[in-house]
C-alpha cells in the first residue's frame, strides 16, 4: 500500500514537475527560493522555529478554479484521497474595484503530524454564477449550460479517489494510475478556446473567463515557501522576471513574522489555440497563470486577527491621505506602535497560537505553578512554540488575483450579491468546511493541557477548564 501522505507528497511532486514544464519561469522561482532558504538557514538558527528545511523545502500550495458545486464535490473527493480537507471560507467578491466572482476554500491536511509530513494545500475557488452583480440572467443561464456539459474529473479517477479515502491509501499499481489521472486533470489543455465566448466572460472578469471559458480546469499557480520573501522579490527582478508591485500581507518589520506574506511574478502570455466565430483555428495568447511565492508566520487568534485587520485598514487610510508616501514604511511604523514585538507578548496577550511544553523539572523552592499563562511563561514553568499559519488571507489572495488580471472587469456593486457563507459552501462540497481558528485552538489547548498535567498544575488546569487561562481578554489595540 502507498499510504495517504505518500500519495499527497507524490502528487505535489508531479504537479511541480508538470507546472515547471508548462511555465518555465516557475523553475527559476524554485531555484531562487532554494538558494535563499539555504542562505537563511545557514545564518539564522531560529529559522527552523516555523518549519525546518525538510518541511519548507517541499512545501507547496496550488490553486485551481471550478465552475459548479458538482465540480467542487468531485475535486473534494480527489483531495480527500490525499488526506486534504476543506478549511476556511474566503469570499473574494467584495473587494470593490477588481472584485472577483468566486468564493473559495483551501484543501489541506489538518493534523499537525500530517502537516509536518507534507503540508500540501490547494486553494480552490468556485464561480458564483448566481451573483447578479457580475452575471445577468441571460449570461448566467448560458454559463451554467456550458459548465453542465463539461467533465473535469474522469469517473475512473473518482472511483480510485473514493477507494483511497476509504482504505487510507492504494496498492502500488492503482496508486500510480491515480496519480497519473489526477495530474492530468490539472494540466493545461491543448483544446481550442472559443474566442468569442471567452471574450464575453472576460469583460465581466478574467477569472470568470479562466473558469467558464474553457472546458477543463488547470493549475492557476503553484507556490513554494521562502524564508525571506523580500530578498526573493528583489532577486527575481534581478533575473529579469517582472514581479507584481508589492508584497501582499503584513509589512517587513523587526517583530515576529505572522500570518502570510505573498508575492508573484506577473502572469505570462501563454500561446493558446482559439476557435474563431467562423470556425477557423488561430493562435493567440492568454495571461491567466502566474508564479506565486509565500512566507508563512505565526497563526493569530481572532483577537490577533482583529488587531492585524485594524492596522491594515489604518495603513490604507494613511496611504490615501498621503499618496506619495511609501506604503511599506507607513505600515511598518504602525506595526511598531500597535503590534506586540515579541512572541512572549503575543502569547501572554492571547493574540497568537502556540503549543506549550513544560520546562524540565528543577528545584523551585516548593513553589506551586501560577494559574495564569503569563505567570507560567514569565517564571519559566512553560515554553511557547509558535504554530505556523497554514491558511490564507482573502485580502492578499484578491490582491494577487487583481495584480495579475488583464483588466478590472465589471460588476454592479449596487445590486445585492448572492448570499454565501461557510455553511453554504459546506453544503456545496458535501463535506464540512473546518474553522481554522478552531483547529489552531484545539492544537494549542491539547498541548497546554498536557503540559499542565505534567506540571500537575491543578489550579491552572481548572482555570483552563473555565476559559480563564487562554481565553482571557486580550490587550486592547492602541
TrEMBL record:
Keywords: Dioxygenase, Iron, Oxidoreductase. It is an enzyme of class 1 (oxidoreductase). Pfam families: HGLS. It comes from the Bacteria. Its EC number is 1.13.11.93. Its cofactor is Fe(2+). Belongs to the 2-oxoadipate dioxygenase/decarboxylase family. PANTHER family: 2-OXOADIPATE DIOXYGENASE_DECARBOXYLASE (PTHR39479:SF2), PTHR39479. This is 2-oxoadipate dioxygenase/decarboxylase. It comes from Streptomyces nigrescens.
Amino acid at each position: 500500500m502507498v499510504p495517504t501522505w505518500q500519495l499527497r507528497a507524490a502528487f505535489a511532486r508531479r504537479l511541480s514537475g508538470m507546472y515547471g514544464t508548462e511555465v518555465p519561469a516557475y523553475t527559476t522561482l524554485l531555484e531562487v527560493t532554494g538558494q535563499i532558504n539555504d542562505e537563511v538557514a545557514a545564518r539564522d538558527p531560529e529559522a527552523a522555529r516555523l518549519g525546518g528545511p525538510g518541511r519548507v523545502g517541499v512545501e507547496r500550495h496550488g490553486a485551481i478554479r471550478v465552475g459548479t458545486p458538482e465540480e467542487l464535490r468531485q475535486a473534494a473527493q480527489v483531495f480527500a484521497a490525499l488526506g486534504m480537507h476543506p478549511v476556511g471560507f474566503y469570499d473574494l467578491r467584495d473587494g470593490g474595484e477588481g472584485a472577483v466572482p468566486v468564493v473559495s476554500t483551501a484543501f489541506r491536511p489538518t493534523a499537525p503530524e500530517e502537516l509536518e509530513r507534507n503540508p500540501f494545500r490547494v486553494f480552490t475557488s468556485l464561480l458564483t454564477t448566481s451573483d447578479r452583480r457580475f452575471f445577468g440572467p441571460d449570461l448566467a443561464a448560458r454559463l451554467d449550460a456550458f459548465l453542465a456539459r463539461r467533465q473535469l474529473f474522469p469517473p475512473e479517477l473518482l472511483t480510485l479517489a473514493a477507494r483511497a479515502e476509504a482504505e487510507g491509501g492504494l496498492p502500488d499499481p492503482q496508486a500510480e494510475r491515480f496519480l497519473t489521472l489526477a495530474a492530468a486533470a490539472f494540466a493545461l489543455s491543448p483544446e481550442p478556446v472559443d474566442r468569442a465566448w471567452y471574450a464575453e466572460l472576460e469583460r465581466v472578469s478574467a477569472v470568470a473567463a479562466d473558469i467558464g471559458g474553457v472546458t477543463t480546469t488547470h493549475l492557476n499557480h503553484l507556490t513554494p515557501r521562502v524564508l525571506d520573501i523580500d530578498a526573493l522579490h528583489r532577486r527575481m527582478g534581478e533575473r529579469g522576471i517582472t514581479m507584481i508591485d508589492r508584497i501582499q500581507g503584513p509589512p517587513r518589520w523587526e517583530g515576529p513574522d505572522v500570518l502570510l506574506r505573498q508575492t508573484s511574478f506577473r502572469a505570462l502570455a501563454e500561446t493558446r489555440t482559439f476557435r474563431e466565430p467562423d470556425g477557423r483555428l488561430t493562435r493567440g495568447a492568454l495571461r491567466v497563470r502566474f508564479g506565486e511565492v509565500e512566507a508563512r508566520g505565526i497563526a493569530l487568534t481572532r483577537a490577533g486577527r482583529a488587531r492585524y485587520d485594524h492596522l491594515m485598514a489604518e495603513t490604507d487610510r494613511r496611504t490615501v491621505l498621503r499618496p506619495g508616501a511609501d506604503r511599506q514604511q507607513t505600515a511598518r511604523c504602525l506595526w511598531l506602535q500597535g503590534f506586540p514585538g515579541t512572541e512572549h507578548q503575543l502569547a501572554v496577550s492571547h493574540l497568537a497560537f502556540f503549543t506549550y511544553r513544560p520546562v524540565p523539572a528543577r528545584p523551585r523552592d516548593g513553589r506551586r505553578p501560577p494559574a495564569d499563562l503569563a505567570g507560567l511563561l514569565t517564571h519559566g514553568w512553560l515554553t511557547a512554540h509558535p504554530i505556523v499559519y497554514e491558511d490564507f488571507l482573502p485580502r492578499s489572495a484578491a490582491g494577487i488575483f487583481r495584480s495579475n488580471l488583464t483588466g478590472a472587469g465589471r460588476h454592479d456593486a449596487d445590486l445585492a450579491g448572492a448570499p454565501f457563507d461557510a455553511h453554504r459552501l459546506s453544503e456545496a462540497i458535501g463535506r464540512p468546511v473546518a474553522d481554522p481558528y478552531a483547529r489552531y485552538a484545539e492544537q494549542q489547548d491539547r498541548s497546554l493541557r498536557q503540559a499542565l498535567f505534567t506540571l500537575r498544575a491543578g489550579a491552572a488546569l481548572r482555570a483552563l477548564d473555565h476559559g480563564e487561562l487562554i481565553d482571557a481578554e486580550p490587550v486592547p489595540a492602541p
